[in-house]
Amino acid sequence: MIDSAHRFDREMIVIERELDHLNRLARTLDSRFRLPGTSIRFGLDTIVGLIPGIGDTLVAAPSAWIIWRGHRMGIGRRHIARMLANSAADYVIGLVPVIGDLFDVGFKANLRNVAILREQLGARKQAHSSAQTETSAAA
User: CB-based contacts of 17: which residues, under 8 Å, 6+ apart?
Assistant: First the structure.
């Protein structure tokens, strides 16, 4: 029993490190820069998205990476579907000149996706903690 608890703790440490890395990537893509004199934040997704025809496709790769890492972490299908929907909306609307760029500034699909991952990690930790408490109480 202790081995499984330690294994879970080690796994969570690895996942938390991965989430920190993914969060840095998402911030770089979605909110790295601030428009001077405002609270408006934007990232490389918005800047690269300005390149007609190829910009949005280029930034789709790191967005897909975040989703793939979530899948590898064992995030459920429903949550992966939400992440895919966020990234698909960002990509499709981002293809529309000007409107897509404004959408990128406000929607921040990558930060939303990392938030989904963090939410699921928290739920997984809470479920494990509850199971540990019940097991301890039964013993």
Answer: none
The total number of residues written for the chain in this structure: 139
Distances, alpha carbon 119 to alpha carbons 19, 70, 76, 122, 124, in Å:
11, 12, 12, 5, 9
Outline where the chain has alpha helix (H): 2-30, 44-49, 55-72, 77-94, 99-107, 109-138
Which among 125, 129, 126, 89 has a CA at the least distance from the CA of 12? 125
Predicted TM-score of the model (pTM): 0.86
* 126 to 60, 121, 133, 139: CA distances (angstroms): 32, 9, 10, 20
Q: 38-81 pLDDT, tens per residue?
A: 999 999 999 998 988 799 999 999 999 999 999 999 999 999 99
